[in-house]
Amino acid sequence: MTGRGGGRISRRGLFGLGAAGVAVVGAGAATASAVTREAREHTPAAGASAASGSVPFYGGHQAGITTPAQDRLHFAAFDVTTRKRDELVDLLQRWTAAAARMTQGRDAGTFGAVGGDPEAPPDDTGEALGLPPSGLTLTIGFGTSLFDERFGLAGRRPPALADLPAFPGDDLQKDISGGDLCVQACAHDPQVAVHAIRNLARIGFGKVAVRYSQLGFGRTSSTSRAQTTPRNLMGFKDGTNNLKLEDTDMLREYLWAAPGDGPDWMDGGSYLVTRKIRMHIETWDRAPLAEQQAIFGRDKGKGAPLTGAAEFDAPDFAKTGPDGKPVIAADSHVRLAHPSSHGGARLLRRGYNFVDGSDGLGRLDAGLFFMAYQRDPRTQFTPIQRTLSAKDALNEYIKHVSSGLFACPPGVVDAGDYWGRALFT
C-alpha cells in the first residue's frame, strides 16, 4: 500500500487506523493518510507522553541516558566481524536510520514487515506490528576493543576509555564481557525492546555478530524525580541518591564529557560501565532481617537510612548506638557507596533486575544488570568499585560475572548525521 510519491504507510500507522480507517483507505484515501502519516512521523515529540508514547531520537545527547528509566531492557554487545572501515561506517549509518524509525514507532526499514518484494526477506521482522513506540530508546557505545588496528582508530581512543582494573572477588566470564559495540534498548514493552535489537542484528548480518545480550525487567534506579525509587531482587530500594535528569549542574560535572576531557568526538557523550551481578538469592533469603538491614544500612520497608525516618534523609555516619558502635556500619553498602566516601563522585545508574532461569542445581540465576553512565570512569566508577569490592558486607551475597566499558558518543543531530560520525571523519 503506497502513499504520495510511492511512500509506504507505516505499519503501526496502518494498524492504528482501525476498521473504518482501513475502509476509507480502500476507497481511495491512501494519499491523505500518507500525508497525515508524514506530518505525524516527522514532528518531534516534546518527550514520552505516556508509557506508549515516543521519545525524540535527535538531540545533543543520546536518548536513553537521562531519559526517565523505562520498565524493560534488552542490552546487546556486538563483535565487529568485518575488517573494512567503510563497511563499519555504512553499518552505523544504516543502524542510525533504523533506530530513528523504530523509536518513533515505525518499521526498521522502508517497506516494513509485509511490504516490498515477496520473494525477498522483509525490511522488518514483524513482531512489533501494531504496537506503539512504548518509550523506546536506543543508545550506542563503542568498546575498548574497537580501538585496535583494524579501523585506524587507536589514536582516537579517549583516555577515559581505559580498561577497568581487576577488582577483588571478580569472577568474570569472557564470553559475556566486553564487545566492540553495544546497544542499549529500553522500552516499556519488552517485545518492542527485543524487536529493536533483533532488527539491528539482522541489518548487521555479515558485519557484526552478537557477542552476548541481556534482558532486564523492573528498573532498579530512578533517573527522574518524577519516578519512585524501585527495589532490587533483595527487596531493598536501590539508587536513592542516583543522579537525576533535573540535576542540571551535577550532570555537567559528573555525566557529560566536556571539551578538553579528551578527543572532541566525545564532547557531549558519556561513558557506560556494565556489570552483571549475580545474587545468591537463596542464601540471602535465609538471612535475618536485622542482618539484611545492617548490610545495606537502610530500613527495608521505608528505604530510609538507619539513622533517619524517610528514604531521602541524609545518612548520619557519625551517629552511634548504645553500644558505642556506628548505627550505619563501617562495611555497610550505603556508607561505602556514598559520594562522601569518594570525594563527591557520583554516577547515573540505569540498572535492571534479571532472572535467567536456574543454574541446574535448583538455584535462581538472578541478580542485577548494573549500568552506570559517567564523565570519567577512572575517577568515578573505578574508585567506588575498588572500595566496595574490598570492604562491602554485601559481597558475601553477590558475584560479578561480566563487565563492559563503552564510550557513548553525543547524540545524532538530524537525519543527515549518524552514530559516531565525528569519530570516523
Shape: globular
Outline the low-pLDDT stretches: 1-48
- How many helical stretches? 10
- Percentage of residues in helical conformation: 10-25%
Structural class, by secondary structure, is: alpha+beta
Which sheet architecture does the biggest sheet show? 8 strands, antiparallel, barrel
Strand line-up across the major sheet: 1-3-2-9-5-8-7-4
Strand content: 15-25%
Q: How many angstroms separate the termini?
A: 39 Å
Function: Involved in the recovery of exogenous heme iron. Extracts iron from heme while preserving the protoporphyrin ring intact.
Protein name: Deferrochelatase
Catalytic activity: heme b + 2 H(+) = protoporphyrin IX + Fe(2+)
Domain Dyp-type peroxidase C-terminal: 229-412
Task: Describe this structure as you would to a colleague.
Residues 220-239 are annotated as: Disordered. One of its GO terms (cellular component) is cell envelope. This is Deferrochelatase. Its main location: other. The chain is α+β, with helices and mostly antiparallel strands. It folds into 2 domains: 1-43, no CATH class; 51-425, no CATH class. 24% of the residues lie in helices and 18% in strands. It has helices at 11-16, 18-41, 85-102, 190-203, 248-254, 281-285, 289-296, 333-337, 381-391, 421-424; strands at residues 72-80, 137-143, 181-187, 208-219, 270-279, 348-349, 352-358, 364-374, 398-408. The chain has an 8-stranded antiparallel barrel. Helix 3 packs antiparallel against helix 4 (190-203).
